[in-house]
TrEMBL record:
It comes from Gelidibacter maritimus. The last Arg residue of the ACP-binding site is essential for the weak association between ACP/AcpP and FabH. Pathway: Lipid metabolism; fatty acid biosynthesis. Keywords: Acyltransferase, Cytoplasm, Fatty acid biosynthesis, Fatty acid metabolism, Lipid biosynthesis, Lipid metabolism, Multifunctional enzyme, Transferase. GO terms for molecular function: 3-oxoacyl-[acyl-carrier-protein] synthase activity; beta-ketoacyl-acyl-carrier-protein synthase III activity. It is found in: Cytoplasm. It comes from the Bacteria. Catalyzes the condensation reaction of fatty acid synthesis by the addition to an acyl acceptor of two carbons from malonyl-ACP. Catalyzes the first condensation reaction which initiates fatty acid synthesis and may therefore play a role in governing the total rate of fatty acid production. Possesses both acetoacetyl-ACP synthase and acetyl transacylase activities. Its substrate specificity determines the biosynthesis of branched-chain and/or straight-chain of fatty acids. The lineage of its organism: Bacteria, Pseudomonadati, Bacteroidota, Flavobacteriia, Flavobacteriales. Residues 109-190 form the Beta-ketoacyl-[acyl-carrier-protein] synthase III N-terminal domain. This is Beta-ketoacyl-[acyl-carrier-protein] synthase III.
Amino acid sequence: MYNSKIIGLGHYVPDNVVTNDDLSKIMDTNDEWIQERTGIKERRWALENSEDTTSGMGIKAAKVAIERAGIDKDDIDFIVFATLSPDMYFPGPGVQVQHALDIKTVGALDVRNQCSGFIYAISVADQYIKTGMYKNILVIGSELHSHGLDKTTRGRGVSVIFGDGAGAAILTREEDNTKGILSTHLHSQGEHAEELVLVAPGMGKRWVNDILRDNDPNDESYFPYMNGQFVFKNAVVRFSEVIMEGLGKNNLGKEAIDMLIPHQANLRISQFIQKKFELSDDQVFNNIQKYGNTTAASIPIALTEAWEEGKIKEGDVVVLAAFGSGFTWGSVIIKW
Ligand code: UT7
């Protein structure tokens, strides 16, 4: 059995910055409410009809990760793409990456685990590398939220939170079992599936034909819904549990954490976890202030920025953790 390790990271965000004040011009909200409840100051929203699609942003992030990994695109054995906002209902964006990067006909897997998507994607890639089936895997998390949000006062509880962007990582084989990804931990609780949900279009409840037929201006089924307080309460519990689980599995205490990269759901959640694990400001990386919640892209964007800023060094224990729609949650423990 091998370990896997991250050897290249990249991210991409659209140029278009949308501040809280910009939002207050199109809906009844304000900078004070958004900053106080979420920590967000601004987010990137791709311009309509730009190249910044979910696959397009993912491809840009992937190119950076591949270059930094120092491998050739033809060394990539498998692609894993996490998103809740694919360009097309099917096929998922994994195959678009294979085509755009002109990679040979390797497998491309799409992961549908929302905010935990990148954690799930890393876990999948890690298993393939552990068994020796693949050596180099491209893992991408990318989201284009802005085109699908309800940007009226009706949708303000959700739409002010989400932003667009992408991050990517190259995982490769590590022969030393004390290094790289030490363990991954995944969970789900489907009884809460509809507490953070996008119902339509879905074959189960509201398909595109139904929406067009009814043409109901009050139809909210094709906008994301979130029971914010309920999600928040579950998030702080599950984040803590799954970080503890990962540390415990590796016989590590909380003092072993050199860098925690939490999914950027809400700065208040990150601060709660920071306090609970008694971490200093430089042991937790947050960039939700600049980007909002970019769902499957948030951890790879944050990981890339932390690495670029020199905040992750060889030998560090790096913990990734996420919680979100499903509910699904998970963690990854890395010895960098
Ligand atoms: O990434 C996946 C996981 N996601 C999360 O973990 C998110 C978890 N939840 C949260 O982060 C928070 O619940 C939110 C930031 C979404 C909301 O904060 P909250 O403190 O739970 O606010 P609330 O939903 O209870 O709303 C409080 C008030 C309401 O008004 P009333 O009923 O008290 O008069 C809302 O209508 O704030 C109002 N409100 C807003 N006001 C100004 C809701 N959204 C806005 C807004 N601007 N954008």
